[in-house]
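Lay summary. Proteins are chains of building blocks that fold into shapes, and those shapes determine what they do. In this project we predict the shape from the chain. Here is one chain we studied, written as its sequence of building blocks.
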Amino acid sequence: MRITQATLEHLDLLTPLFVKYREFYGALPFPDSSRAFLEKRLRRKESVIYLALADDDDKRLLGFCQLYPSYSSLSLKRVWILNDMYVAEDARRQLVADNLMRTAKKMARKPTRCGCGCRPAATMKWRRRPMSRSAFAKTLNSRITFCRST
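And here is the predicted shape, written in a compact code that computers can read:
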């Protein structure tokens, strides 16, 4: 698999999986609104989306993760919040989430950034296993996991 950063050219590929992600968590699909939401985030550079693509097929999206920027007053740097992650049903148990998280962590470790945080919902048990394997550390309240850059 290859991990690549999404651009506007990936919208048609990303939107159906994003809609499935929303449905998985009980949201109504709204494909047109979902596409417009993603387009706005990408066009305004308000988020970073990583795509896991099959090695043998550029049109086969295995999964994605989306990070939003925030800032740390203490470190005076940018922090990235891993807000969304979804792996296609037929791509599960292939380490897709691990590879996406590794890429997110690598991005968060750039010198101008202080790390990457993730706040999984109670229903997001799938996130906890890849995070524990990818060196994300739990904070005291166990609600936020954080990978600090070094």
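What the prediction tells us: The chain has a mean pLDDT of 81.
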